[in-house]
From TrEMBL:
One of its GO terms (biological process) is phage shock. Keywords: Membrane, Transmembrane, Transmembrane helix. The chain crosses the membrane at residues 6-27. The lineage of its organism: Bacteria, Pseudomonadati, Pseudomonadota, Gammaproteobacteria, Alteromonadales. This is Phage shock protein B. It comes from the Bacteria. The keyword Membrane applies. It comes from Alteromonas confluentis. InterPro entries: Phageshock_PspB (IPR009554). Pfam families: PspB.
Length: 79
């Protein structure tokens, strides 16, 4: 190969290996560590609160359906 072409290939490769690759690896393994740690205490509390709200909403829907079943038995056939 020609020396000029070799320099054109070598310079970007060296810059990549010195600057980009280490930062890339650090960020990659840092994100892997965060994923493997699971939920934080704040995230767990938020998830628990959302689950409680969903349970309450489910109970309300069941109550509304039972009221509608009693007062308007054909409401499910509409729409």
């Amino acid at each position: 190969m020609d020396a000029g072409i070799m320099a054109l290939i070598t310079a970007p490769l060296v810059l990549f290996l010195i600057f980009v690759a280490p930062i890339w690896l650090i960020l990659h393994y840092r994100s892997k560590k965060q994923v493997s740690q699971g939920l934080s205490a704040e995230e767990y509390a938020e998830l628990k609160a959302l689950a409680e709200k969903a349970e309450k909403m489910s109970d309300r829907i069941k109550t509304l359906e039972s009221i509608l079943d009693h007062e308007a038995p054909q409401w499910r056939d509409r729409a």
